[in-house]
Write a sequence for this structure.
């Protein structure tokens, strides 16, 4: 059976670092002084230094974040989707161009996969990619939509199926999210804290049968029973509305500790864990009883970029790929609605 390989990864974020500005903005949004104090304390413990957005925290700019998110007059879904349609292709082109596809690789692309849960339109990003790269009109396009943070693992699974069924296939995968497009005006501290970690980002990857990068060995989904309500993502009148329960880290850590991965972890050298937040990483480290430095790449991505939903695990894999030694075994893991952990076993070649 043909083996599929994740050959290389490129990443990109918008130009505006909004983390510090958001902390100030969110504190001002909370009317209760006690909640403001608690939010400030939690923000200082989040282990996030930078998050990037296509929205500009400086007033008076073309994409003025303060004008877009004016208290008492937050934008409706139509306005948010209009900005997505304008801004998502810009970030996509930045990521795809950094993949540095040569002419042979570009002409050889047979499939385009796109993951996104923060915006949609048609013809969409898949067509934008084909046009930008000048790909053949018969390239097969697939959108993996609204699956949240674990979508990239599912897209890699699909890419593996494609390459294993046709060794000549060449798959271009793009994971793109504009999470900052969906801030909500609220006095609910748990919801405001969920906005504290999310950011915009994109990744582009090439998956082929060429023996280079990471071999995609196997995939497994782990669903935690009776936790469907802990993470939800629904389209409403004022954008996409997220619920991210504070119970998620505890339930996730317990499920990992009691699951099959616990007995298999000793053979794994490389951990590419989706940094959904500091508490998520702490729960994985504790649940699987990992060494203190096992999630270093994930913690670095969280600090430098925040949580970019489906693109984030690819940022982690990119860092690990730059340092991995041939033969090392790895496990990638992302979490999302369900409550579900999507896992991928791989090894460096």
């Amino acid at each position: 059976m043909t083996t599929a390989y994740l050959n290389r990864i490129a990443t990109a974020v918008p130009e505006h670092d909004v983390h510090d500005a958001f902390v100030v903005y969110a504190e001002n949004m909370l009317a209760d002084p006690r909640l403001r104090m608690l939010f400030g304390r939690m923000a200082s413990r989040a282990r996030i230094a930078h998050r990037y957005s296509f929205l500009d925290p400086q007033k008076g700019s073309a994409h003025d974040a303060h004008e877009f998110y004016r208290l008492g007059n937050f934008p409706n879904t139509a306005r948010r989707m209009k900005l997505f349609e304008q801004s998502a292709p810009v970030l996509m082109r930045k990521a795809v161009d950094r993949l540095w596809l040569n002419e042979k690789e570009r002409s050889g692309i047979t499939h385009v996969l796109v993951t996104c849960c923060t915006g949609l339109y048609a013809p969409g990003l898949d067509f934008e990619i084909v046009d930008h790269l000048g790909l053949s009109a018969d390239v097969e396009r697939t959108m993996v939509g609204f699956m949240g943070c674990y979508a990239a693992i599912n897209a890699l699974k699909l890419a593996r199926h494609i390459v294993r069924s046709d060794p000549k296939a060449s798959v271009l995968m793009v994971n793109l999210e504009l999470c900052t497009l969906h801030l909500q005006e609220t006095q609910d501290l748990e919801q405001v804290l969920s906005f504290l970690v999310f950011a915009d980002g994109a990744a582009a990857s090439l998956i082929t049968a060429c023996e280079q990068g990471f071999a995609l060995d196997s995939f497994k989904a782990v669903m935690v029973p009776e936790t469907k309500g802990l993470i939800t993502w629904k389209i409403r009148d004022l954008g996409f509305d997220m619920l991210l329960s504070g119970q998620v880290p505890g339930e996730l850590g317990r499920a990992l500790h009691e699951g099959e991965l616990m007995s298999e972890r000793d053979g794994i050298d490389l951990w590419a864990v989706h940094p959904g937040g500091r508490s998520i990483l702490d729960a994985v480290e504790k649940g699987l009883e990992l060494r203190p430095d096992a999630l270093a790449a994930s913690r670095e991505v969280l600090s430098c970029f925040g949580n970019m939903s489906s693109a984030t695990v690819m940022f982690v894999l990119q860092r690990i790929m730059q340092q991995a030694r041939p033969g090392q075994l790895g496990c990638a893991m992302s979490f999302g609605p369900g409550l579900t952990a999507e896992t991928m076993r791989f090894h460096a070649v």
